[in-house]
Write a structure and sequence with these properties.
The structure holds two protein chains of two kinds. Chain A is mostly beta strands. Helix content of chain A is 0%, strand content 51%. Chain A contains no helices and eleven strands. In chain A, strands 2, 4, 5, 6, 9, 10 and 11 form a seven-stranded mixed sheet that branches. Chain A has a four-stranded antiparallel sheet with strand order 1-3-8-7, with no helix packed on it. Chain B has no helices and twelve strands. In chain B, strands 2, 5, 6, 10, 11 and 12 form a six-stranded mixed sheet that branches. In chain B, strands 3-9-8-7 form a four-stranded antiparallel sheet, with no helix packed on it. The termini of chain B are far apart. The chains are: A mainly beta, B mainly beta. Chains A and B meet through strand 4, strand 5, strand 9 and strand 10 of A and strand 5, strand 6, strand 10 and strand 11 of B.
């Protein structure tokens, strides 16, 4: 059973640019959720995808968007990057009916 | 809205000491409750969970009991080890039955255990 993998592990972007983060879900999982973890804080729920449709969204603006593909991999896109977007972005995969989510190691985004 | 509050950290203990990390929550309905652990440079790992009132979750010597009357889910371990040093997050998931995976986290508690 493969785990949840995210890419890239680190990246640096300039304010105003766009970024795409990728997540490969664990085998057999049909749901992916994305979280933003600012330094020293707990993760905050961005949104969840199930069967390629958005299935719930946290308090994040529309410039945060996502996709889920038929193989259950996923992307998080952020447009018009702001300095406050600097954070660790975590992807978690699960089965929609199961209580346990499995997290990837995250992508550290720095916006300068 | 839903929220989770953890005790202020960081917590520093000597090896074999008793650990308690307090967690309280605010939510309507009947959330599931979780403790996740984050080791340096890694993602989150589920430590234990409880899905209904009075359930006790346990794993690797850690325990937490879902107390609906006090809206709490305190984490305890009788004898900590240096390898337990990490950040601990309490979390809730309010979706029930058919749609899990939208977690609300506390701010995290840094635990450092000295030999």
């Amino acid at each position: 059973e493969t785990g949840v993998t995210q890419s890239p592990t680190h990246l640096i972007k300039t304010r105003g640019q766009q970024v795409t983060l990728r997540c490969s879900s664990q085998s057999g999982h049909n749901t992916v959720s994305w979280y933003q973890q600012a330094l020293g804080q707990g993760p905050q729920f961005i949104f969840q995808y199930y069967r390629e449709e958005e299935n719930g969204r946290g308090n994040f603006p529309p410039r945060f968007s996502g996709l889920q593909f038929p193989n259950y991999s996923s992307e998080l896109n952020v447009n018009a990057l702001e300095l406050d977007d600097s954070a660790l972005y975590l992807c978690a995969s699960s089965r929609i009916e199961a209580t346990e989510a499995f997290f990837g190691q995250g992508t550290r985004l720095t916006v300068v | 809205g839903d929220s989770v509050t953890q005790m202020e950290g960081p917590v520093t203990l000597s090896e074999e000491a008793f650990l308690t990390i307090n967690c309280t929550y605010t939510a309507t309905g009947y959330p599931s409750l979780f403790w996740y652990v984050q080791y340096p440079g890694e993602g989150l790992q589920l430590l234990l969970k409880a899905t209904k009132a009075d359930d006790k979750g346990s794993n690797k010597g850690f325990e937490a009991t879902y107390r609906k009357e006090t809206t709490s889910f305190h984490l305890e371990k009788g004898s900590v080890q240096v390898s337990d040093s990490a950040v601990y997050f309490c979390a809730l998931d309010k979706a029930g039955g058919t749609s899990y995976g939208k977690l609300t986290f506390g701010q995290g508690t840094i635990l450092t255990v000295h030999p």
